[in-house]
Amino acid sequence: MSKEPSEKTTPLMEQYVKIKAKYPDAILLFRVGDFYETFGQDAVKASRVLGIVLTSRNNGGNDVELAGFPFHSLDLYLPRLVRGGYRVAICEQLEKPHPQKKIVKRGVTEVVTPGVAVDDKLLDHKSNNFLASVCFGREETIGVAFLDISTGEFLVSEGDLASTDKLIQSFQPSEILFSKDRRKLFEKSFGDKFYTLPWKNGFLPGILRRKSCTAILRSKT
Known about the structure:
The chain is of the alpha/beta class. It has helices spanning 11-20, 40-50, 74-83, 161-171, 183-190, 210-219, and strands spanning 27-32, 35-39, 55-59, 62-70, 88-93, 106-112, 131-136, 142-148, 153-159, 175-179, 196-199. The chain contains 6 helices and 11 strands.
């Protein structure tokens, strides 16, 4: 059974736990020297998807699952995680190691999800990579939008459940956003086979905020 880092942790794992808490639904690639490391359940998932060795690390007297790969292999392994349907947070070392400092400063510099991938290595150039957003309205009306950030294509529609489901099945989005309090309704209406990212009312992931989207779309026109 997988074990997450315990309350008694080493300084490195204490830093990891604080950063991981900000990205609980993502696989956190934690830069340690020349490697990206994953821990706990993230390590179990990464080991399975990437076919890399699952081992363990001593964490204050307790072992925690560990799986990693060389930093220069990121272009090889990141696409596999994203295509596997996982949200990935990349945590880099933000300063050079210093003999007088036990822990270097680290922070997440990029979050990649299936629907917002723009790197050529993450895309299938034979098909679109749509991000969809579903909004449940009144009187069984549903609004849906499809955006391919890599091409700038943007489509919107409004209709009943049957017409919306037909569009989703046709466009096959890589990721679907919907309000967090509508999870049960979404899964009842469209099933659970899609990669989804529920958000709180009034909040969208940073890359999807208006300024970010505008900048991305302008760069494609």
